[in-house]
Amino acid sequence: MIVKLIDGKLRIVLDAVEQAHISGWPREEGDIEQKSVFKLHPASKDKGASVEESETVTTKFTEVREREFQWDPNFKFFEPSQWYSAERKKASK
User: Fold this and answer.
1) What's the pTM value of the predicted model, to 2 decimals?
2) Is the N-terminal amide bond of 42 cis, ω within 30° of 0?
3) Closest CA relative to residue 70, chosen from 85, 83, 81, 84
4) Are 19 and 6 spatial neighbours (Cβ–Cβ below 8 Å)?
5) Which residues, at least 6 apart from 7, have a Cβ–Cβ distance to it below 8 Å?
6) Angle at Cα 55 formed by Cα 53 and Cα 61, nearest 5°?
7) Is residue 21 within 8 Å of residue 35, measured between CB atoms?
8) Phi and psi (nearest 5°) for 90?
9) Which of 2, 20, 78, 92 could pair with 69 in a Cys bridge, judged by C-beta atoms 3.0 to 4.6 Å apart?
10) pLDDT confidence bin for 85, thresholds 50/70/90
11) Domain residue limits, the chain
């Protein structure tokens, strides 16, 4: 979670899960492990600030996908893109 002081109030400008473990019956896939890594990119003269997320989700398979959050100056928060660059392989547990 990233917060920013906007108009004298703390506002959430990015809210994403960093790490999660989901288990329980009746899940055919078994447990789910999710872990994300975030890279912050400062604003430049040509582009606003952005945050890159790389998420790994492990069930019977491991899937890696990425998305980017772009700063929206009108709404004053980071707008997420669609997920892209998916990679899927058999999990090694």
Assistant:
1) 0.82
2) no
3) 81
4) no
5) none
6) 160
7) no
8) -65, 130
9) 78
10) confident
11) 2-20+30-90
Q: Which string of b and e fits 26-46 if b means at least 16 CB within 10 Å?
A: eeeeeeebbebeeeeeeeeee
Q: Which amino acid is at 5?
A: L
Lookup: tokens for 4? 């920013």
pLDDT for position 29: 63
Q: Detail the DSSP E strand segments found in the chain.
A: 2-6, 9-14, 19-22, 32-41, 50-58, 61-72, 77-80, 84-90
H helical segments located in the chain: none
Residue 19 CA to residue 40 CA, distance in Å, equals 17
What's the token pair of residue 75?
Answer: 């709404």
